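4.2 Preliminary Data

To establish feasibility before requesting continued support, the project team ran the inverse folding procedure on a target of 156 residues. The structure was first converted into the token representation described in Section 3, and no sequence information of any kind was made available to the design step. The complete token record follows.
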């Protein structure tokens, strides 16, 4: 099991540590963005849909780097993460049909295939994000929230 440790920073960055058994932890500084960290949104999308994005690739052994080799499914996951980030900046209240349309436009612009996501999938991801947001809000500066890949429920 891979653990992802998110530590709330006092300044402009939070921190993410990827802990895989028997391998030194990888540490990444995450710019604060006014909502949960970007990679926590990845966790919500990937664990809810059971899709291979950045975190799943890291869990499988790839280096936790900001630039990875392009891969169709992970590119599609990244576009969906961006849609949910935009939803977060808008207060987590964007109508699901609008989010799906934005996802379609974003995928078309980046020439990547959309994941097969239903309105129910979108609501499940949003619910996971809202739960993570509530937990993250309660984490004091300097403290951490630990997530395990594969921990969240599968909505399918």
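Position-by-position output of the design step:
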């Amino acid at each position: 099991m891979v653990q992802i440790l998110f530590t709330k920073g006092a300044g402009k960055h939070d921190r993410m540590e990827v802990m895989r058994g028997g391998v030194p932890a990888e540490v990444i500084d995450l710019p604060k963005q006014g909502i949960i960290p970007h990679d926590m949104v990845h966790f919500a999308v990937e664990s809810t849909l059971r899709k291979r994005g950045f975190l799943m690739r890291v869990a499988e052994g790839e280096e936790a780097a900001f630039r990875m080799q392009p891969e169709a499914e992970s590119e599609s996951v990244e576009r969906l993460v961006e849609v949910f980030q935009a939803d977060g900046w808008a207060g987590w209240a964007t109508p699901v049909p609008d989010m799906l349309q934005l996802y379609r436009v974003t995928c078309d612009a980046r020439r990547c295939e959309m994941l097969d996501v239903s309105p129910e999938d979108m609501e499940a991801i949003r619910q996971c994000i809202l739960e993570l947001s509530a937990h993250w809000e309660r984490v004091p500066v300097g403290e951490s929230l630990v997530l395990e890949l594969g921990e969240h429920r599968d909505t399918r």
